[in-house]
Amino acid sequence: MGIDALFLNANLATMSSSGPYGAIKDGALIVTGEKIRWVGKRSDLPAGAREEAAEIHDLGGWWVTPGLVDCHTHLVYGGNRAGEFELRLNGATYEEIARQGGGIRSTVAATRQADENSLYAQSLPRLQSLMAEGVTTVEIKSGYGLDLESEGRLLRVGRRLGREEPVRVFTTYLGAHALPPEFEGRADDYVDFICQEALPRLAGEGLADAVDAFCEGIGFSLSQTERIFQAAAAHHLPVKLHAEQFSDLGGSVLAARYKALSVDHLEHLGPLGVQAIAQAGTVAVLLPGAFYFLGEARKPPVDLLKKQGVPLAVASDSNPGSSPCGSLLLMVNMACTLFRLTPEEALAGVTRNGAAALGLADRLGTLEPGKAADFVAWDITEPAELAYHFGYNPVKMIVKEGRVISRR
Ligand code: DI6
Ligand code: FE
To answer: Hey, where are the domains in the chain?
Structure first.
């Protein structure tokens, strides 16, 4: 087995579970093909590694982390809602705006109007902004098209972004994001349409890696959500859930019964929900951007989640209404300042646990032999700096599947 690349002179925050950050000072990484073959101290490098290596990269004493994983975004959509933001700051409420045709529905209208190329062009800069900070894996949800044709277009744009950009894209069908205008007053009929038509078709075309729903008073009920989970199971797709964002409907308990990959938001999650997801091994995804942008007061029960050993992920929730965010590092900072995660926990949230929230923990998220050779070199003197700065990007080099894709 040949050595394609040897990376030397770096401190490694492997994020594997041994010790703080799984740190290895003065470490080295050997890459073969698209995978990490060996990780360790430079002094322990296997004999002959330097001679055998096709390429040797000096990482200048920088710190290296796994490639970042943004496990919850809605970044493919048309238009934006800056006007609505302005209205809100001039005193309009979210409900008034929604009644005048604003809110999610205005994004649905703008998204339906945009053809595939236009959607691609509008979404690409949002993706590139995340990638510039070392994101090498991103989840992208549908949910701004709602009808079959537009949801398919959103998911196809997501897949195409993953083919044309050096980033791994995981797509999630979120048909149950909002009630489309053509189903006004007929939410159960819309759920039938999701379960009987849209989900089977999109799953059949291989456009979705998972299924999500917005389980909320202003979204879909517990029983509607359960029907969607059953349809997902029938098509062998894992589920995720927007749960307990504005109220505690028990979405997390339901999601745990369906062995959900993750439950996301969770500001109103109670002890029963925490216990259920702890037992199911479901990841809790924290979205500090939405909490911040909507000016929420109630925080997710972080201490209880930690006490019960629930893996915590952190994501951008990039979307036009509640988190128009292009920086995962800012979310790492806010997970610490707003939700009191430690820098190490926040970094695990965008690496190891972000990967787990996508069911990819065996392939990504730590620097270990056999995992994808996705990693980022940072010009920092200790890993906590990644959480400490905000509005500052210390990336020096990004490697995706063994290939250097960016240097700064
Ligand atoms: N929860 C949210 O915060 C966003 N979607 C969701 O399910 C809001 C999306 C939007 O306002 O466009
Ligand atoms: Fe979301």
So the answer is: 5-66+367-407, 68-356
With bands split at pLDDT 50, 70 and 90, how would you rate the model's confidence at 98? confident
Task: Please name the residue that has the structure tokens 């894209």.
Answer: 169
Answer whether 73 contacts ligand 1 (Cβ < 6 A).
no
Closest CA to 241 of 180, 127, 221, 290: 221
Q: Which fold has domain 68-356?
A: TIM Barrel (3.20.20)
Tell me the per-residue pLDDT of 44-96, one tens digit each, with 9 for 90 and over. 999 999 999 999 999 999 999 999 999 999 999 999 999 999 999 999 887 78
pTM across the whole model:
0.98
- 1, 9, 2: which is closest to 57 by C-alpha? 9
**Under CATH, which number does the domain 5-66+367-407 receive?**
2.30.40.10
Ligand 1: residue whose CA is nearest its atom 10: 321
Which tokens go with 304? Answer: 């209880």
Question: CA 117, CA 122: separation in Å to the nearest integer?
Answer: 9
pLDDT at 101: 77
Question: Does residue 122 come out as left (phi exceeding 0), alpha (psi in the -120 to 50 range) or beta?
Answer: alpha
pLDDT in tens, 120-167: 999 999 999 999 999 999 999 999 999 999 999 999 999 999 999 999
Using the predicted structure, report yes or no on whether residue 17 has a pLDDT greater than 80: no
The contacts of residue 227 (CB under 8 Å, 6+ apart) are 191, 195
The answer to whether 212 touches 235, Cβ cutoff 8 Å, is: no
* Smallest-distance ligand from the CA of 143: 1
Is any atom of ligand 1 closer than 6 Å to the C-beta of 104? yes
In this structure, what are the phi and psi dihedrals at residue 255, rounded to the nearest 5 degrees?
A: -60, -40
Given pLDDT bands bounded at 50, 70 and 90, which one contains residue 18? confident
Confirm or reject: Cβ of 142 under 6 Å from ligand 1. Answer: no
Structure tokens of 30? 């050997």
Ligand 2 geometric centre to CA of 363 (Å): 24
